[in-house]
Amino acid sequence: MDDVNALIRARMQSDVAIIPALADHLIAAGGKRLRPLLCVAAARLCDTANTHHHNLSAAVEFIHTATLLHDDVVDSSNLRRGKVAAHLIWGAPSSVLVGDFLFSRAFELMVETGSLEALGILSKASAVIAEGEVWQLTKAFDINLSIDTYIEIISAKTAALFAAASESGAVSAKATPEQREALRLYGLYLGLAFQIQDDALDYTGSAADLGKNAGDDFAEGKATLPLLLAVQRSKDTHGDFWHRAVSLRQQADGDLHTAQQIMNNTDALVDSIAMARDYAAQAKACLSVFKSSAWKTALENLADYSTARQK
Q1: What is the percentage of the chain residues whose pLDDT exceeds 90?
Q2: In this structure, which of 106, 166, 197, 250 has its CB flanked by the most CB atoms within 10 Å?
């Protein structure tokens, strides 16, 4: 990961000063680096004999960072990773264009590996992520969204990059088809667990822990699992509240607290976290095709961490 981080820093440079400054604002803020870590771990688990996964890991992080820059503009977010969102400092146009620059750098890094398979995996994932984000945008404020559709949306906007990171790492190591598919599914289920936990934390965490404002999902009308479960289970008693606060977008002071209380009373948060843990368990089960090793243990631990974390 030290090598990957060095590569990330080297390849985000540009003679146009605002590009590395804006990119570094987000990248230097830290983040968990889970997606590039997945690519590295998958390659090492499959006994890689090359370092192509370094390029692919950096590409994955650039794709992720680009989507964050674009998302913060779309969502009018104020905070990202505990820092003022880039678009509030440099403006929305610069944030969007630097995101485009990072996407371009990602594809350069992929091409340099000479692997058309890896390029295909990550380029397809980039398109799926964009589709997922647009899909979520069109379903904002929809309190009647089905749980199945919610899972499809987060499979696209979040889990697709987890899956692609894992699978591309396996491909770079010339893994067997069975190993490659196992790691793709591992990444997919891990991504689902991670996103559902994220959605639950938006109602239980704090800005200090999350690095963004708690309750943002509620304010933006995002139809996440805790909200959908709470709505389904309290329509008879709190239907008017949900209709006003979410469907009509007429939120008042105290509405977030009311939503949290309803979620607690209906076990919406408890059951959301339980579903996240189920996906984490499915991710770990996918690793059964691999023999015991430090890398297998690390990936199993990562699945546990995805639902134990508080930020």
Answers
A1: 90
A2: 166
Q: Which of 285, 134, 269 is nearest to 199 (CA)?
A: 269
Segment 199-207 mean pLDDT: 87
One-letter amino acid identity for 250?
Answer: Q
Band (pLDDT 50/70/90 cuts) for residue 212 is low
DSSP letter (8 states) at residue 51: S
User: pTM, whole model, 2 decimals?
Assistant: 0.94
Q: How far apart are CA 225 and CA 278, in angstroms?
A: 14
How many Å apart are CA 177 and CA 197, to the nearest integer? 30
Give residue 79's region: left, alpha or beta (phi > 0; psi -120 to 50).
beta
Binned at pLDDT 50, 70 and 90, residue 162 comes out as: very high
CB atoms within 10 A of CB 47: 12
Q: Are 160 and 191 in contact (CB under 8 A)?
A: yes
Half-sphere exposure of 51 (CA within 13 A, CB side): 7
Residues in the chain: 311
Residue with tokens 């689902």: 192
The residues, any chain, with a CB within 8 Å of residue 91's CB and separated by 6 or more, are none
Contact 277, 307 (CB under 8 A): yes
Three-state SS annotation for 234-280: HHHHHHHHHHHHHHCCCCCCCHHHHHHHHHHHCCHHHHHHHHHHHHH
Give the closest residue to 103 by CA, choosing from 2, 187, 11: 11
Helix 160-172 with 34-45: angle, nearest 10 deg? 30
CA dist., res. 186 & res. 34, Å (int) = 13
* CA distances, 241 to each of 140, 237, 309 (Å): 17, 9, 31
